[in-house]
Amino acid sequence: MPPAKKRTRSYDPAKIRAAVLAQFGNVRAAVATLTDDQLGLPTRLGDWTVRELAAHVTMAVETVSRNLEREEPAKAELALLDWPFATAARAAGIADGTRALAADHPDLDALYARTGERLSQKLADAPGTRLLAARTGAMTLADYLVTRTVELVVHTDDLNAAVPGLAIPYDRQALAACTRLLADALAARAPGGSTEVRIPPYAVVQCVEGPRHTRGTPPNVVETDPLTWIRLATGRLAWQDAVQQAKVSASGERADLAPYLPLLA
Question: Is the torsion defined by CA of 26, 32, 33, 37 positive or negative?
Answer without folding.
Answer: positive
